[in-house]
Amino acid sequence: MIKIKNLYKNFNDFQLFDNFNLIIPKGKVTVILGPSGSGKTTLMRMLSNLDKDFKGEIINNSNIFSYVFQEDRLLPNKTVLDNIEFVLNDSENYLEKIDMTLSILEILDKKNENINNLSGGQKQRVSIARAFISPSDFIIMDEPFKSLDFELKINIIYDFIKLLVQEKKTILLVTHDVLEAILLGDIIHIFSKPPTIIKKTLNVDINKSEREIYSNKIIELEKEIYKYLCSTK
Ligand SMILES: Nc1ncnc2c1ncn2[C@@H]1O[C@H](COP(=O)(O)OP(=O)(O)OP(=O)(O)O)[C@@H](O)[C@H]1O
């Protein structure tokens, strides 16, 4: 579990967080939805020790982090396999897991392909595979599906759900996409404008493998979230 306690963060006289608290439970997907400028990126930077200039406590026992960003951060001119082995110390022990993960993400046939020859969606699948295969305790995902078209995004999300059903991971997902939040999240936090607080927390009590985009439950949740996102309070 990762705990943020009594966090205060400012940039000169701009107070971004003013006694902010958040818990990221182990083995769950915690989603942050919030307006532009509410501090999502800053929070991720503080969680990953890139920004240490704050008051309060961040209790984080995870030793290894991995990241999935909107733009892929893969090694160019290397194969898919090279990119995955890059984050592993003893890749020999991971061969089965690599194949299984690539297969679920539908890119097993690209294993020995040069990254440069892959489409944007395929590269994003490689980024997800790499984060999943690496022995990290905590995966931070910053708008990982943003640049993808709707159909591709939904397909990758469903493949990603298959991975999560196989193996629970502690994930923090930051997104502006309400449907993505509902399909992947266990807990959804909606941020206010600064000074940022959590306006609303929703638990998604629908089995991950039963999250159908057209189902009434999903549509009801979407409506509820839009209500909070649109309220100025
Ligand atoms: N280095 C910095 N110096 C001054 N102000 C900053 C700095 N970094 C962030 N801010 C301010 O802090 C606020 C939060 O920024 P942040 O990038 O964390 O928001 P965000 O929620 O990730 O936004 P978006 O959804 O647009 O990516 C913004 O008002 C931003 O201008």
From TrEMBL:
Top-level division of the source organism's lineage: Bacteria
GO molecular function term, any single one: ATP hydrolysis activity
Keyword annotations of the record: ATP-binding, Nucleotide-binding, Plasmid, Transport
Gene3D superfamilies from the UniProt entry: P-loop containing nucleotide triphosphate hydrolases
The keyword Nucleotide-binding belongs to this UniProt entry's keyword annotation: yes
ABC transporter domain location: 2-218
Endpoints of the signal sequence: none
InterPro entries the UniProt entry points to: AAA+_ATPase, ABC_transporter-like_ATP-bd, ABC_transporter-like_CS, ABC_transporter_ATP-bind, P-loop_NTPase
The keyword Transport appears for this protein: yes
Database matches in PANTHER family: ALIPHATIC SULFONATES IMPORT ATP-BINDING PROTEIN SSUB, TAURINE IMPORT ATP-BINDING PROTEIN-RELATED
Name of the protein described by the UniProt record: ABC transporter ATP-binding protein
Organism lineage string: Bacteria, Fusobacteriati, Fusobacteriota, Fusobacteriia, Fusobacteriales
